[in-house]
Amino acid sequence: MDKKKIVLAEDNSTLSLLLKFRLEKEGFELLMAVDGKEAIELIENHNPDLVLTDIMMPFFSGLEVISHMRNKLEVDTPVIVFSSAGQEEMVLKAFNLGANDFMGKPFSPNELVIRVKRLLS
Amino acid sequence: MMYYQYIIDYYNEFPFLVRLIWIISGILFSIIVLLTIYLKLVRSFLRRKDKEIAKFKDDYEASLIEYLYSGNEQEELSEVQKSIILKLKEEVPFKSKRKIIISILYNLMNEVSGEMSDSIKILYYETGLIDYAISRLSNKNWYIIAKGIGELTRFKIDETHDKVAKFINHPRSEVRKGTQLYLVNMFRFEGLKFLNTLSAPLSEWHQVQLLETLQKFDDQQICDIKPWLKSTNDTVVSFAIKLAQIYNQFEVKDVLIELLSHKAKEIRVSVIEVLTHLYGVEAKDMLKANFNELSLDEQISFFALLEKLVIPTDEPFVEKHLFHKNFEIQLLALNILKSINIDKYMGLTNLPKDEKSPAMLKLVNTI
Hints:
The complex is a heterodimer of chains A (121) and B (367).
Chain A: E1 5-9, H1 13-25, E2 29-33, H2 36-46, E3 50-54, H3 62-73, E4 79-83, H4 88-97, E5 101-104, H5 109-120
Parallel strand pairs in A: 1-2, 1-3, 3-4, 4-5
Helix pairs in contact in A: 2-3, 3-4
Chain B: H1 2-12, H2 16-69, H3 79-91, H4 95-109, H5 115-126, H6 129-136, H7 142-154, H8 161-165, H9 173-191, H10 204-215, H11 226-229, H12 234-246, H13 253-258, H14 265-277, H15 282-289, H16 296-309, H17 315-320, H18 327-340, H19 342-347, H20 358-366
């Protein structure tokens, strides 16, 4: 059975590595991006089953990634956004653009796995 | 050889000024060459250092992830975790490596919660990083102390309360601020007890930061703020007034009313504003009786209070100040009159021109 592909766009390398390790353990294939630009390239080239993206990232923000997916690529791949304290308005914008779920930092990787599984089921 | 001799002779024939310029040019050229070489060396050194840092960061990140995922429920630390701790312990004494380890730990601590955050904290203890942070508190340089306090705050180390709390009246505001934030971050409202002994001023910016920190917590059960309202430190009183407003401290209304006779005008004005927020009707008669002794700012604040807490019996007082010399008070008085006696308010437009302020009249027509 093919592994489900997940694009993870996060500029904090330690957190990326931590989530990669955790999600790979759950049987997913992780495609890593350190900024919004790389995330868009990965989404265009690999057609993932799910996208996990931070809101604040270099080059393109998480909002721009979602906007690109929904308006330019016109794909309805589920998106989970990560937000920090004080980014509540950004989260609302992300939902308006088509995000499916969000997790406020700091978050528990175990909870993320549950949400990922729920969206992919 | 002849050629060089020819150049030297040619140079010697120049006037003194031209020779001087040649000498200066030569010196400057040499300096530029030397600086270019130096710059190249510095750049290559920095690049090498960056590579080393990146390599160490990668190695360390991998170790950290392995540490976080190799725990088990039977024991506090598994064998794998213990071996990783031992490995890191060897790196910690080196300042540059310690700095990288701390930055990685802190970056992750901010992003994950629950068990993982606790595991990171255990790692911070077990590798001895905490001892370096504590030793910073004994340093003679204030900025090292401030960094130490900042680190203990970031890693949520509450055991060092006594060691940190002694800096609450430190001569440097940076250290004081760090100490205050440490206490509030660790002990929430209980941490505010430093206000009892604070003799140094608490700047507006520090106050805002403390309030912002307090609002992050789920438990918003505030402690008794009365002692701070009675503090001899005016900035503490000012901060306590803000707490009274934000946390709706109706039970301190009596103390707030006493503060209406505080020596500092800013505090008296703030108190009127908070009493407005807390529906301090008890203060109204007192302020009305002393209205003429109040400063202009207090008078304006009082009219703002009256606008919210007015009752029909206040009408004569309001009417008396309809033509106050201050336009803001005139405006507030008009608004109040409009709310309690619309007929009288409408009748104001029929006054002879010499009895009314043109600005007020213009406003009446637009309200």
